[in-house]
Design goal:
Blueprint lengths: L4 H16 L18 H13 L3 E11 L6 E13 L5 E4 L1 H4 L4 E5 L5 E10 L4 E5 L23 E6 L7 E15 L5 E8 L11 E3 L5 E8 L10 E5 H14 L9 E3 L2 H6 L5 E6 L4 H5 L5 E2 L5 E2 L2 E6 L2 E2 L3 H8 L7 E8 L2 E8 L7
Length: about 350
C-alpha cells in the first residue's frame, strides 16, 4: 500500500528517532535496598555487628553526704565507654572515666549491669583495667590488631556512648601518627593516633577499630573549642595497651625500670637556667647509686650544692623528667643504658644496668 506523503514523513521520523535511541527503553527494576551495599558500606555494617557486643557502658558513681540529712547518697559522676578485653571479665577504659569513683557499673550489650572492681590503674597512660563477674558466654572480647601497621589515610571506626547514646558508630581515617598528648598527670603519652572519626564526650574509653574490625586504639581525647567533636580526636595505640595490661594485672599499676633517683622539679631547673635533670637524691642500693651518680650535697655552711645533672640517656637529650621516664620505659629490667651527666661542668658517663620495681 502506498501511504500519503504526510504519513510517509511521520513514519520516517519515527524510524529516525528509534535509530537514534531517542525513545526511552523500559526502566530497569530498582535494586532492593536491603540487599544492596557498596563495598565500604558492607564493611562498616560487618564491623559494627561484630564489635558492638564487645562495647560496654561505664557508669561512675561517688558517695556524697547530704548536707541536710547527713545521709550518704550515691551520686552519678559521669559515664563513658569501655570494651571487653577477655573472657575472664576484664574491661578496659580510660582512667579519667572512673577517676574518683566509689562505685563503677558496667552495662553489657545485653543490658545486664555488673559492679566492677578496679584491677589496676595507669594514670600516666590514661588507662584503667576493671573486672566484672559476668559469665563467659556474655563476654565478647575484641580481636587485637597491631597499631604499628597503621598508615595515614587508612579507615578507622570508633564505637562508643557519646552523650549517653549507647553503641554509636562513627567512621573516619587515620589523620596522623606519632602524636603526643598530656595525661591527667601531665606525663606525655607518645605515639598517639590522631583521627577525624567523630569522638564526643562519652566516647572516652571506647575502641578504635581498623577495617578488619581489630582493636587498634582506645579513644581518649579531643581537641575542640566547643567541647564537641571538631574532627581531631586521639586514641592510645593498642600496642601500648598490650604492654600495660600485664603490668596492671601483676602489680595494679604501671611499672618501668628505674634509675633509683629523685629529681628536682623541672620548674626549678628552668628558673636556674639549667638544661637537664637535676639529681636531688640517690638510693645507694639502686642502679644510679651503685654506678656513682651523686645528688645534692650539703656543705659545711648548710647550703646545698648540685651534684649530677642528667643531660643524656642513650644519646637522647634530657630536658625534663618526662624525657627520662619516656626513655626508661623503652627498656626492661636487665637492660644497659648509657647515662651522661654534667657534674660541676665536667662530663661524666655511666653505664647502668636497670633494675625492676621489685628490686628497689
Amino acid at each position: 500500500m502506498i501511504l500519503p506523503s504526510r504519513s510517509r514523513r511521520i513514519v520516517a521520523c519515527l524510524g529516525l528517532l528509534l535509530s537514534c535511541g531517542a525513545v526511552p527503553a523500559l526502566a530497569a527494576p530498582a535494586p532492593d535496598y536491603l540487599s544492596f551495599h557498596t563495598q565500604d558500606e558492607a564493611n562498616n555494617v560487618e564491623i559494627f555487628k561484630a564489635a558492638s557486643p564487645s562495647v560496654v557502658y561505664v557508669t561512675n558513681s561517688a558517695l556524697r553526704r547530704n548536707f541536710y540529712s547527713l545521709n550518704v547518697q550515691e551520686i552519678p559522676q559521669g559515664s563513658g565507654t569501655g570494651f571487653v578485653w577477655d573472657s575472664t571479665g576484664l574491661i578496659v577504659t580510660n582512667f579519667h572515666v572512673i577517676q574518683g569513683a566509689n562505685r563503677v557499673t558496667i552495662t553489657l550489650h545485653d543490658q545486664s549491669s555488673w559492679d566492677a572492681e578496679v584491677v589496676g590503674l595507669a594514670p600516666d597512660k590514661d588507662l584503667a583495667l576493671l573486672r566484672i563477674k559476668a559469665p563467659a558466654g556474655q563476654l565478647v572480647p575484641l580481636p587485637l590488631g597491631d597499631s604499628s601497621l597503621l598508615d595515614v589515610g587508612r579507615k578507622v571506626v570508633a564505637i562508643g556512648n557519646p552523650f549517653g547514646l549507647d553503641t554509636t558508630m562513627t567512621v573516619g581515617v587515620v589523620s596522623a601518627l606519632g602524636r603526643e598528648i598530656n595525661s591527667l598527670t601531665d606525663r606525655k603519652i607518645r605515639n598517639v593516633i590522631q583521627t577525624d572519626a567523630s569522638i564526643n564526650p562519652g566516647n572516652s574509653g571506647g575502641p578504635l577499630l581498623n577495617s578488619l574490625g581489630q582493636l587498634v586504639g582506645v579513644n581518649t581525647q579531643i581537641i575542640s573549642p566547643s567541647g564537641a567533636s571538631a574532627g581531631i580526636g586521639f586514641a592510645i595505640p593498642v600496642n601500648t595497651i598490650k604492654k600495660v595490661i600485664p603490668q596492671l594485672l601483676q602489680y595494679g599499676h604501671e611499672v618501668q625500670p628505674t634509675l633509683g633517683i629523685q629529681s628536682v622539679s623541672d620548674a626549678i631547673a628552668r628558673q636556674r637556667g639549667i638544661t637537664g635533670i637535676i639529681v636531688a637524691a640517690v638510693n645507694p642500693n639502686a642502679p644510679a647509686g651503685r654506678a656513682g651518680i651523686q645528688g645534692l650535697q650539703q656543705d659545711r655552711r648548710g647550703s646545698y650544692q648540685i651534684g649530677d645533672i642528667i643531660v643524656e640517656i642513650d644519646g637522647a637529650a634530657m630536658h625534663s623528667s618526662d624525657d627520662m621516664f619516656n626513655a626508661l620505659e623503652q627498656h626492661q629490667r636487665g637492660d644497659k643504658v648509657k647515662v651522661v651527666t654534667d657534674r660541676h661542668d665536667q662530663r661524666m658517663e655511666f653505664e647502668i644496668v636497670l633494675d625492676g620495681p621489685d628490686e628497689i
